[in-house]
């Protein structure tokens, strides 16, 4: 639609990774509305930067991404408009496998100054762009055979929902991985795992998510995902077994597990629960302390705050666990995950678990943490 223009001059190209071109489209200095068509080769992106006067981007060709600092990346397709407020730190560029063009409109040109910052390194770029591409490479929904379903899920789950709530890519993908395990979504887990590893989730973190699932969904459901994780990790060159993450011994697992229980749910609550258990059921309380918490919650690789989000994701996705969901909502708050974070997690899980379980989870949230 617009000319390619010339390769960026040195004064600008030094702030780009990859090749980009610029075609100025306006020349009337009296109107003073500079507009240029910027074209990025696949994988090309500019550095983190900001504009004192703001900027408008209008996508006109191919597929690209825009990301503000601390926010999920937004995919851009022809017709999309991005309104960038003054002094907001951001980057934009092409998808890894697509050319991309946008119109760049300079706002408030009399006072608009660019501040160029550090490059968007490969890890940051992969975290922003890998999820969507990797998902469709691993999920058995063929765009050619089911185009409408593909389009609905792609736009909703991997576009609209993924950008909601402000979770960083690592947290979002870890929670979705846990949800896929609880839902027994083998293909979804494999696809999400590729995206997660591309986004910087470590092999240790992946294995700890699967291990964490064992006391909540049982080994019968978790075992397949240990195998899938191992297969994907080895295919990527990871040597197994990974370094051990256990911090307990048979002699101290109970004491350490009970200490973690008390730290998450409060000593008074846990001690009362143990004391009130009928005599013939006290062994279950023992198992909760030494196995569920002592064997698993004390492990390294994920901190307690992230483990509580993983547990919340598992329980919400299982369904029928509302009493436990409520307990772990309180536990999450105690370790620093507030209602906004938990609601963001539930929103991210919505496309994977459906509306009934999502609404049940929100009902639990509102019961434990009422709206003002």
UniProtKB/TrEMBL annotation:
**Pfam families named in the record:** CMD (PF02627)
Q: Entry's InterPro entries?
A: 4CMD/NDH-1_regulator, AhpD-like, CMD-like, HNL-like_cupin, RmlC-like_jellyroll, RmlC_Cupin_sf
Q: Domain named Carboxymuconolactone decarboxylase-like: which ranges?
A: 147-231, 288-366
GO MF annotations in UniProt = peroxiredoxin activity
Tell me which domain of life the UniProt entry assigns to the organism this sequence originates from. Bacteria
**Gene3D superfamilies cross-referenced by the UniProt entry:** AhpD-like, Jelly Rolls
Q: What is this protein called?
A: 4-carboxymuconolactone decarboxylase
Q: Which organism is it from?
A: Alistipes timonensis JC136
């Amino acid at each position: 639609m617009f000319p390619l223009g010339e390769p960026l001059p040195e004064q600008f190209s030094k702030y780009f990774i990859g090749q980009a071109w610029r075609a100025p489209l306006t020349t009337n200095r009296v109107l003073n509305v500079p507009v240029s068509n910027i074209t990025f080769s696949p994988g090309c992106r500019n550095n983190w930067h900001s504009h004192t006067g703001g900027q408008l981007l209008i996508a006109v060709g191919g597929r690209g991404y825009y990301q503000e600092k601390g926010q999920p990346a937004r995919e851009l397709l022809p017709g999309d408009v991005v309104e960038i407020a003054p002094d907001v730190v951001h980057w934009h560029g092409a998808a890894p496998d697509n050319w991309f063009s946008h119109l760049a409109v300079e706002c408030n040109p009399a006072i608009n100054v660019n501040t160029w910052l550090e490059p968007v390194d490969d890890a940051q770029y992969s975290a922003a762009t890998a999820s969507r591409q990797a998902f469709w490479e691993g999920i058995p929904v063929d765009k050619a055979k089911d185009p409408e379903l593909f389009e609905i899920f792609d736009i909703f789950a991997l576009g609209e929902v993924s950008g909601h709530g402000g979770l960083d890519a690592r947290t979002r993908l870890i929670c979705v991985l846990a949800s896929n395990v609880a839902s027994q979504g083998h293909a979804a887990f494999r696809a999400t795992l590729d995206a997660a590893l591309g986004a910087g989730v470590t092999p240790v973190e992946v294995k700890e998510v699967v291990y964490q699932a064992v006391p909540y969904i049982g080994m019968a459901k978790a075992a397949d995902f240990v195998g899938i994780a191992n297969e994907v990790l080895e295919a990527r060159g990871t040597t197994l077994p990974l370094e051990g993450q256990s911090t307990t011994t048979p002699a101290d697992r109970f004491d350490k597990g009970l200490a973690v229980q008390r730290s998450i749910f409060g000593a008074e609550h846990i001690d009362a629960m143990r004391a009130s258990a009928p005599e013939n059921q006290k062994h279950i309380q023992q198992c909760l302390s030494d196995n569920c918490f002592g064997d698993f919650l004390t492990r390294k690789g994920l901190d307690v705050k992230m483990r509580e989000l993983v547990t919340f994701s598992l329980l919400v996705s299982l369904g029928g666990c509302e009493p436990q969901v409520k307990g772990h909502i309180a536990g999450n708050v105690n370790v620093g995950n507030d209602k906004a974070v938990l609601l963001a997690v539930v929103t991210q899980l919505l496309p994977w678990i459906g509306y009934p379980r999502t609404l049940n989870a929100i009902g639990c949230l509102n019961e434990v943490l009422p709206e003002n």
